[in-house]
Amino acid sequence: MARSLAAVHDADIICLQEVERNWRRTNFVDQPAVIEALLPDRYCAYAPILDVDASTRESNGNVQNRRRQFGQMTLSRYPIVSSRILHLPKEDTADLPNSWCGAHETVIVLPTGAVRVINVHLTDITRTNRITQSLELVKKLEDALTEGGAWNGVETDPAAIEHWQFDDPAPPMPLAAVVAGDFNDTPDSPVLEVLRSAGYRDSWSLTTALTSFDATFKTNPEQGTFTDMRIDFILVNDAVTVVDAEIIADCDASDHQPVWATLTI
Prior knowledge:
Strand content: 25-35%
Largest sheet: 6 strands, mixed
Number of domains: 1
Helix content: 10-25%
CATH class: Alpha Beta
Shape: globular
Strand order of the largest sheet: 6-7-8-9-11-10
Structural class: alpha+beta
CATH superfamily: Endonuclease/exonuclease/phosphatase
Low-confidence stretches: none
Radius of gyration: 20 Å
Number of strands: 13
Number of helices: 6
Order of helices and strands: HEHEEEEEEEHHEHEHEEE
């Protein structure tokens, strides 16, 4: 975990996927807690897209409550004023393992204004499922602008103000949006075309510093990948300007290569 974070810790905003707690493969470690401890100067929000029971019952009959979780985590130098899970459609693939996937929407208030950061992890099982997920994601992103922030209005009842905090400034739902993460599909796929058609631009394709290496997931026959692929993206809408983008080719902290973008709003 420390090695993975070392590769990205200088970023103002960090989007992590496959963050989990209470799984055998990671020795039942509470990864969100470890990440918070390793980056104590950051605001953190965890989105357990998959959340199932991992509790045990003690000999005295008491339940030791424990959740087995898997999802995305977003970290920021600036306040994360709201956070929510956007569940995306899941196909029943019978004997082929498939699980809930989704997006983690946060609203972050930067010195220059507020931005929505949508931390995405689409399924790796079928392209048809990824297409339905990307279509639903676009709909949720559009609906958010109509819904507004986590709440709206101003509480004026003194009794209500005493017990609730809706007199605090309401979190905004800004137009500026960054959609980043693991899409498990390539730039020319119909999955990415859904996002492009909705006005989201690939930050890598907009930069002037393109290199010959653009893979974010290298050949890995053990995982059924027989060629280098670019499947991780930082996409932006027209309210965000891309200054630069980079893929770190020589990082061995993960099976995915880190994707960086310098953006302004």
